[in-house]
Amino acid sequence: MRTGMLALALGLLTPVFCPALPPLWLIAVMPVLALMVLPFRTHPLGFFLIGLAWACLLAQMALDERLPVALDGETRWVEGRVVGLPQYSEGVVRFELADTHSRRTRLPASMRLAWFGGPPVSSGERWRLAVKLKRPVGLLNPHGFDYQAWLLSRGIGATGTVKDGHLQQPAQGAWRDGVRQALAQVDAQGRSGALAALVLGDGGGLSRDDWQVLQDTGTVHLLVISGQHIGLLAGLVYLLVAGAARYGVWPARLPWLPWACALAFSAALGYGLLAGFEVPVRRACAMIALVLLWRLRYRHPDPWWAWLLAFNGVLVFDPLASLRLGFWLSFAAVAILVFTFGARLGPWRWWQTWTRAQWLVAVGLCPILLILGLPVSLSGPLVNLLAVPWVSLLVLPPALLGTALLPVPFVGEGLLWIAGGLLDLLFKGLALAAGRIPAWVPAAIPVWAWGMAALGALLLLLPKGVPLRVLGWPMLLLVVFPPREEVPPGQAEIWQLDVGQGLAVLVRTRRHTLLYDAGPRFGEADAGERVVLPTLRKLGVAGLDLMLLSHADADHAGGAQTVRNGLPTTRVVSGDPAALPAALQAEACDSGARWEWDGVWFELWQWSSALESNQRSCVLLIEAGGERLLLTGDIDSHAERALLDGPLAVPIQWLAAPHHGSRSSSSMVLLSRLRPHSVLISRGQGNAFGHPHPRVMARYRRLGMAIYDSAEQGAIRLQLGAFEPPHLQAGQRRYWRDPPSAGPWPQP
């Protein structure tokens, strides 16, 4: 039976790694084949086919719920009910709308919306909203967060921006939002947001600095509900009933064991519902239910069997949960603990158990964090030794009890005041640790090296005395000192990152690194922090020899300060240094400057008669082995004509579309003179500026240019000097992504 459960789990997970889903007729045939083989020794194949068919069917249904392409960018009146907990940030409210419908058009049942400057929105309310609709899309960068997969895993078929709206019905049954509002009004010594995260699993009240501190110290699991909290509450309720029965306090007419198990599971389930019942909570509730069931039958629980049943239980009810990072981290952490402690022959002292559990989980999760593209907390094993009991034993009891007793005057508020003070002390201590030892973002490594590191971690989890266990350390160190492919001399590796409506281009030669523009920043949305800096670190960039900011507009220089703070940067040069923050210490663009790095030539140009920031863009020409790329910033047609009178008016192979392909740029005279065979466009999907303009796109096609668009193809990688087709990030096919499109690749 256990083999069948393993096969079922494998079938439920298989679609995650598939480039495309099988056709519907094949999905329908799979259960029939499964029924044919189940009675025989090949029954694991039957369980695998059942799991695969079920996962593929629900994935296809979720894809069919997406917004049709014809409605992308359209504005429609939509009616629906607000679900979950709306999030507020800098005048923007973000929320999910369920049970949506429109009078004229069939729309996805669930949407994620943003309302800029909108009124307060509460869970359970019904609204009629004018929404500019968008298909679920996300930025695609190497080893980056897949927002599109996350939306699909939550069943969200469209995103959008609210233009207008009217409340149709007040909130009904929104008890979680009511609890959050009550917590927000309590004096929690400035930590009401942290209390909401601990009690409700709502991290919206945590500041960006709070999140960074939690990430640096590896304590996110303590504030945003984890299975540990659920298990602690269930265990506490069970022990209270058992203790009452032992000392004669429990009513004799009630059998204590069934009541202890029932009340423990009810407490776990109630806390899970209060916390939103996310994947870690579902896993914990499922495992607690199995352990209590075994306890009722007076049998010793099998932790691996409980883990496997919980794993399959979560996936059977929600196969798309495997698209969430929390699913893998939650089940992996429990599996590491079961593996570590399940096969020990002798008991450890309590302090040995506690300390070894922390560092063994850290070692075991290291390869998992690496392959998921998440940072690794170096201080986490030590910090959690104190933070876990602090939260579990000191903060959580008064927080939950205070929330339950809020209707009682002074009592609930007093308990929450104590819990808030304890949380404030915790954050101050965590901030000290994070300031000294921030999280480590390891560079991506080849698959074979990751496999060796994962095997090394597995060896280190084995008991002492196992042969070859000591080899685990050098194998795991491949994560710290990974083998890297160096750029060949005379060539340049170019990455046009997918930063939305903006630009960021990484240029690497054998021993030097240049960043041309640093991505946009609009309000709290800083692409330098969320995209550029993490991507550079994962690509192995340890520092920048030059940050070249074409000009000072927010879509090109908005992320510059974050990148400079995060990476050692030798020089900053800009076409408009006076308009940049003084902290950047930017130098003026030296038009005509020319230099060589590792056999690759660079040359700068700027229009001396420029009147405004776009025209002042510092243009960069890169030449490697006779292949040229021209990075143009936001120059317009007037600056383009001036460029043609200078030294950069030479035939090129690659052109970064001036001003994202706007109508005022990419003039026919420029394209005819430079004769590029390909154009790179960096822009946001459905941007408000209409970039690229249809006339410009028609001009590119008329000249036979291949078009590579970050909004459709994600990050784009060139090996300048090799005369090869580019690598498209969207070319790594996944069934939830639309297939990439590109113009024909012309022969050089």
From TrEMBL:
It is a multi-pass membrane protein. This is DNA internalization-related competence protein ComEC/Rec2. The keyword Ribosomal protein does not apply. It comes from Pseudomonas hefeiensis. Keywords: Cell membrane, Membrane, Transmembrane, Transmembrane helix. It is found in: Cell membrane. Residues 501-685 form the Metallo-beta-lactamase domain. The keyword Transmembrane applies.
